[in-house]
Amino acid sequence: MRYAVLGTGIVGRTIAAKLASLGHEVVIGTRDPQATLARTDPDGMGNPPYAVWQADHADVLLKPFAEAAALGETIVNTTAGTAALTALDAAGSANLAGKVVIDVANPLDFSAGMPPTLDPVNTDSLGEQIQRAFPEAKVVKTLNTMTCAVMVEPTRVAGEHNVFVSGADTGAKKQVTELLVSFGWPEHSVIDLGGIETARGTEMLLPIWLRLMGTLGHADFNFHIQGAR
Amino acid sequence: MRYAVLGTGIVGRTIAAKLASLGHEVVIGTRDPQATLARTDPDGMGNPPYAVWQADHADVLLKPFAEAAALGETIVNTTAGTAALTALDAAGSANLAGKVVIDVANPLDFSAGMPPTLDPVNTDSLGEQIQRAFPEAKVVKTLNTMTCAVMVEPTRVAGEHNVFVSGADTGAKKQVTELLVSFGWPEHSVIDLGGIETARGTEMLLPIWLRLMGTLGHADFNFHIQGAR
């Protein structure tokens, strides 16, 4: 499978590296590849600039959003949530139509400082916004409820824990579940919540997730629905 | 300890019965005791009318909100979230001042149908609203993230799972934690999230909780933060 991962941050890099390690072709999409490669400062969380990561992952291509999305058979949105619709617009609806679009982003709004709030929230979600904006895409919301290291290496958290999938298309959710299993998630740990509107519930886990990260002092934790089976 | 439980619904009854079974004095608060006792229809979830429950729990008193709150050394708010501030106003700030007020309610708004939304949400919470309205009360938000049967009998859900506490007053949270332990919660299962503003995070668990109840077909589940210790 050829994947287009939209976004050059730590989430996109982590998922791209995992996909490549599993033998998939991977192209990362960004607004302006030259500008992305020209950055020399670490990001706000202290991650090294993209070019450093790219040098270690020469098998992963870096292309403008539209070119990446055209190449990808499956799309993974890892952009900052508030930039996701702009990035997907740049990717182009024709390049998303008929494809599975895995939405990993959370619509965190840091404009009023910490802790961030969610926008949209409660009566809408980023997953639904993306599905409405690109009705021919098969949007599946998943993996947005944990740190990216855990997304691709669930055994970082000992014991049973869960990953959620939300989306209208059963076949798309089946494909995404198979991908999650290839990442190391036991099939029984994948909870299908239903339609894309259930992304409201998973996105609204972010406030307690962020608080728990502060309380626990680390991010290697995850939600486990005890009693689910 | 003498407890005032505000609210005559299934949550209030369940907590009142548990407190009484542990040897506490319990008075339930309601707007109009005569009206509460006169109801003969089951509630919207099929629970029997209050009078049926009262007949089986003659040791639990039923009083108007203010009288109940005056009698209670600790207050437990189990009213419907959208009615909580009105009920607490009726209880009276003088009857809450200096006391621990345990807020179990969620501000679910069913006015636009199912699923309910939260009001307030995201930038505020019911827990914070109550603390602001009654600054002399020691508000602790807890137990609002599970079905009431699990609140008072955590072993209904096999394995490890968690209950959260949020509040400004350390002594109040210690008292509430001791109460939770007396309900059967292992002390290590109680996660102190910090101040009352962290109630935003636990109240925002409700959308996924409600969806999970639908998906799983039962309510005997709970959140477990895997990797928390």
From TrEMBL, chains A, B:
InterPro entries noted in UniProt: NAD(P)-bd_dom_sf (IPR036291), P5C_Rdtase_cat_N (IPR028939), STEAP_metalloreductase (IPR051267)
Alphabetized Gene3D superfamilies for the sequence: NAD(P)-binding Rossmann-like Domain (3.40.50.720)
Domain of life, source organism: Bacteria
Keywords: Oxidoreductase
UniProt GO MF annotations: oxidoreductase activity
A Pfam family the protein falls into: F420_oxidored
Domain Pyrroline-5-carboxylate reductase catalytic N-terminal: 3-107
SUPFAM superfamilies in the cross-refs: NAD(P)-binding Rossmann-fold domains
Name the UniProt record assigns to this protein: NADP oxidoreductase
Species assigned in the record: Streptomyces aquilus
